[in-house]
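Internal tracking record. Fields below are filled automatically when a chain is submitted to the structure queue. Please do not edit lines marked as system-generated. If the sequence contains nonstandard residues, flag them in the REMARKS field before resubmitting.
Queue: standard
Priority: normal
Entity type: single polypeptide chain
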Amino acid sequence: MRSGALAPLFTEYIPAEPDEGVLYISMQFETAVHLCACGCKAKVVTPFGPDDWILTFDGTVTLRPSVGNGQQRCRSHYHIRRNNIDWLPKMSAAATAAASARDRAAHTVAAAAPHAVASASWARRLWRRLRRSAEG
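SYSTEM-GENERATED OUTPUT FOLLOWS
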């Protein structure tokens, strides 16, 4: 059954079998997991990072950019904004290929300069994360 909202649950570990309608958020492992909002039960993993998803919490959860399940049979595409699901048109094969290429390119550039990530102090990383949350 298609979902209109996800209930955020902050947890250290993500369960092996997530419940429908729950957005599991592990800050320790910098990732969120939920079952696809279309109801197909595909597990959707959204890691946090500058080249991945950004989580904003203001009492509700917003996850940016959109979640595109173009590699799943359902091809669903949606935003998670303030715990709500905002549906977008299904992902086409061309949109899926473009998104995959863009993701690979962003991660290739990041992997080529690991010293930049390693040199950022924990305080600076925390400050950036807080600043991004405030911009939400």
